Amino acid sequence: MIHRNSLTQLAAGLRAKKFSSVELVRAYLERIAASQPALNAFVSVTGEQALQAAAAADRDIAAGGGGALAGVPIAHKDLFCTAGVRTTCGSRMLDNFVSPYDATVVAKLKAAGAVTLGKLNMDEFAMGSSNETSYFGPVRNPWNTDFVPGGSSGGSAAAVAARLVPAATATDTGGSIRQPAALCGITGIKPTYGRVSRYGMVAFASSLDQGGVLATSAQDAALMLREMAGFDPNDSTSVDAPVPDYVAALDAPLAGVKIGLIKEFVDEGLDRENERRIREALGVLERLGASLREVSLPNLPLSVPVYYVVAPAECSSNLARYDGVRFGHRCKEPRDLQDLYRRSRGEGFGAEVKRRIMTGTYVLSAGYYDAYYLKAQRVRQLIAADFKRAFGEVDVLVGPTSPTAAFRIGAKTADPITMYLNDIYTIGANLAGLPAMSVPCGFVGGLPVGLQIVGPHFAEARILNVAHRYQLETDWHRKSPERFA
Amino acid sequence: MSLTRAQIESIAHLARLELEPAEIPVYQESLSRIIDLVGQLDRADTGGVAPMAHPLPGLSQRLRTDEVTEQDRHETYQASAPQVAAGLYLVPKVIE
Amino acid sequence: MTGLGNDWETVIGLEIHAQLATRSKIFSGASTAYGAPPNAQASLVDLGFPGVLPVLNGEAVRMAVCFGLAIGARIARHSVFARKNYFYPDLPKGYQISQYELPIVAQGALDIVLDDGSTSRCTRGWAGSRAWISTAPARRSSRSSRSRTCALRRKPSPT
Predict the structure, then answer these.
(1) Where are the domains of chain C?
(2) Complex ipTM value
(3) A484 Cα to chain B: minimum distance (Å)
(4) Which of A152, A153, A238, A480 is catalytic?
(5) How far does C52 lie from chain A, in Å, by closest CA?
(6) Which of A62, B66, C64, C98 is the most exposed place for a label (fewest CB within 10 A)?
(7) How far apart are CA B31 and CA A12, in angstroms?
(8) Is residue B23 a part of any domain in this protein?
C-alpha cells in the first residue's frame, strides 16, 4: 500500500529510512506493468535505469545527503527530452528517437534526486484534449477505462490518478495539464510563462507552452514545482527571478483573499451538475474567509478562435524541423528531395498534427497573415488586458476547468471543433501567460470534475495556497479509482 | 468559407505533407470549419491594439556572451540520423 | 548602352553578405572557426534537434550596431527577429531566424572609389543588416526575394 503515500510523505519516509528507494521503485514498476493493458499510460518504462538510480539515491540518503526529492519515483511526459532514453512525443515521427540530451526540467529533477520510471503517453506533439491522437494508442481514464483521461498529458494524469507514480511532469499549451487533472480527479499546475525552462521540452506553440506538474495534491505540486522552476540560460524566454519556496507558502489563511468567478465561464456549454460542484467549492472557499464576487472578462469567449490561429501557426513552424534528414522517421527510398520531405512527414505525422500544421501554414501564408495571425495576436492582447483588469479587483480568478467530465473514447473524434471546445475555459491562461491550476472538487455521474484557479503573473504561491487550504477542508483529492486503490 | 481542393493541395505542398487523394476532402472539410471558427475574430474591435507576440510585457531579448561552449560531438548527434557518411547527412540529390 | 532608339542605363544591384567575426555562432555556442570537418561545429541548437532553443550572441549585436554607426545608418531602438519558413537540407529547423520588418540597422551609405577616381555613393535599402543577423546556411544564399540592393550610380561627369 506504499502507493497510497503522497509525494511529500514518500520524500519524508525515504529520508527517515522507513523504506528504501529501491523498494519503492520495485513496487511502482509492478503497478505500472499490471496497469499497462488497461490504461496504456506509459510509452517507455526504464526499469533498469530506475533501479540503478534508486540504489544511488539510497546511498546518498544513507550518507546524509540527497536532494529534496531523493529517491522519489516520478515519470516524465514523453515531450521532455531524456538523454539515452526514447523521446517520442507520442508520434511515429520520433518513434525511434533517442535524445542525446536531458531537458533542463529533467536535469533539475534528477539533481533533486528524483528517480525516473519512464516516459508517459500523450497526444501526438501535445495536440489534443483526450489522448486519442497518440501513435501508441489512446490512454484510458482510471476511473472508467471506456472514458478518456483528457489530453494532451493523458498518460501523466492517468499514471498519477492510478497511483503508478506519485507525481509526473506534464505540459500545458491550451489546457493540457489542467483538463486531464480535472478529468482524472487530480491536481495540476501550469506555471507562469517563463517560470519553467522550455529547453528540452519539445516545442508545440512557443509563446504558449509551459512545463508543469500533475500530482495528487497542491502540497505535492508545490514541492515538484519548486524543484522544476527557475532561470535557465539556455531558454531566452526563461525569466530570471528567484523561485519562492512554494511549500513554505502553502498554509497562509484565506481570510481577506478576494476571489473572482469568471462570469463568461458560466455559460450554456457548462454542464449544470458540473456548475453545482463548482459553486459548492466556492462555498468552501467563502467559509474559509475568502470573499467572492463575479468578474467579467468580455473578450475571453474569443480564446478558442485566437488559439486556433496562434497555436497552429507556431506549430507549423516548430514542426518544420521534422524532415527525415537528421533524426526521426524517414520514408523508404525517397525519389528526390521533395519526395523525402513529403512522404517522411506525411507518414510520420498523424491526422490531427497534419491538420494543425496545415491550418498554421494557411494563416501565415502571404495574403492571410494580417487577417488571421496579426488579428489573433491583437485579440490576444485584449484578452490579456481583460485578465489584468480583473486582477486589479481580485487576487485570484476561479471557474470550471472543463465544460464536462470525461467523455467516452471515440465520442468526439469525428469533429475536431467539438474536441477543440473542451479547452474553452483553459486557453485564456495560456494566452495571457498566467499561472493556473485545477483541483478536484467533486463528481458528476461517477466521474471527477475540477475547479480552476488562475492567478496573476508569478503568483504560483498564491494559487497553490488557495488550492491547499481548499484541500485541507475537503477530501476530493484523496479519492482514487477503486480499481487502482 | 470553403477551402477548395486546390487550396488544400497548395497548403500541403507548402508544408511538405503528402496527402492521399481520399484525405483531401476530409482536410478540406475540417480546415474550412476551423477557418469559420476563427472568423469569429472579426467580431473584435482591435483598432489601435498592438499584436501580442509574447505574454509577458516589458521583457527584452537576453544576450549571450561570445564564447565557444560546444565541442565536436557529431558522432553522438549522428547516432540518431537516418543516413550519414563521413560526417555528412545524406539526402537525395538536389537538382536545380 | 544605346539601341533601337532607346538609351538604357544599366543598374546592377549587389546583395552583399558580410560575416561578423564572432568567436561563436549567432544563436549557439558552437565555434565559427574556419576549416573544421563537416558538422564538427554543429551543436544541437544548430542542428535543430527537438526541444532546443536559440540564444542570441551579444557580440553579434554589438558588431552590427558598430557597422551601422560606421555607415551612418539608423540604429533601431526596438528590433525584432522573425522566422522565414522554407524547406532545404542545409536549413535544419526549416526556418531561418532573420530580421524582416524591424532590423537593427537600416539605411546608411558607403562611398566607393571607382577606377576612374570618381566616387559612387552606395545607398542601402531597408533590412540591410539581415545578411549578418541571420542563420543563413553556410553555403552562399541567393534565394532571398528581398531586395536589399546596393545600386552604384555614376555621378554625372563634368563635361
Answers:
(1) 12-33+42-153
(2) 0.96
(3) 38
(4) A152
(5) 6
(6) A62
(7) 52
(8) yes
